[in-house]
């Protein structure tokens, strides 16, 4: 199922700001256009074991310090890692965790409200991955602690713990 289609379906019946709702609809329309235009490439990528994530087009946003160019929408095409996605798109499109590059954008609406480094992503079992992908059973707005409890309840054989916070610098006296 398409990324933004799944997100929009999971938000049905919830009270969302009209601007956010129209933003998601705009992204879904762009995604449908890309799916239609790149259907052949998507099928070839599936057959060759490459990532089938769609990378949305970017508009020109230039500043006086850095000129920017517009990029058209395209297919990722990296080597697939799990479930038909590369490692980057597996985290963003399947587990619905934010990218490392983007800061707070979309928290609770298009991505979960905690970054991937705060959650033991690398130790998830296939059952736990499927739960993270199911936005009906585990909604986007679920906090990190609640998410961990539900993931542990899904597969009691693979109990996960949150990583301890480490200080980068020692306090001086």
Describe the structure.
The structure is a single chain. The protein has a domain at 95-161. 38% of the residues lie in helices and 2% in strands. The chain has six helices and two strands. The protein is globular and about 50 Å long. The model has no long low-confidence stretch (mean pLDDT 84).
The structure class reads: mainly alpha
- Return the string of H and E elements: HHHEEHHH
Largest sheet descriptor = 2 strands, antiparallel
Output the radius of gyration.
18 Å
Mean pLDDT: 84
C-alpha end-to-end distance: 55 Å
User: Strand-residue fraction?
Assistant: under 5%
- Count the E strands: 2
Strand line-up in the sheet with most strands: 1-2
Shape: globular
Low-pLDDT runs? none
Helical segment tally? 6
Salient structural properties:
173 residues, mainly alpha, two-stranded antiparallel ribbon, 2 strands, globular
């Amino acid at each position: 199922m398409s990324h933004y289609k799944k997100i929009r379906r999971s938000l049905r019946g919830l009270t969302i700001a009209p601007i956010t709702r129209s933003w998601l609809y705009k992204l879904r329309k762009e995604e449908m256009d890309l799916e239609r235009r790149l259907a052949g490439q998507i099928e070839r990528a599936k057959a060759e074991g490459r990532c089938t994530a769609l990378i949305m087009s970017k508009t020109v946003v230039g500043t006086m310090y850095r000129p920017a160019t517009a990029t058209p929408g395209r297919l990722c095409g990296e080597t697939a890692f799990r479930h038909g996605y590369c490692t980057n798109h597996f985290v963003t499109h399947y587990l619905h965790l934010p990218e490392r590059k983007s800061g707070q954008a979309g928290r609770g609406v298009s991505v979960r409200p905690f970054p991937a480094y705060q959650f033991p992503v690398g130790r998830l079992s296939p059952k736990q991955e499927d739960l993270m992908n199911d936005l009906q059973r585990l909604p986007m707005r679920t906090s990190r602690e609640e998410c961990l409890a539900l993931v542990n309840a899904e597969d009691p054989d693979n109990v996960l713990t949150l990583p301890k916070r480490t200080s980068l610098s020692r306090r001086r006296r």
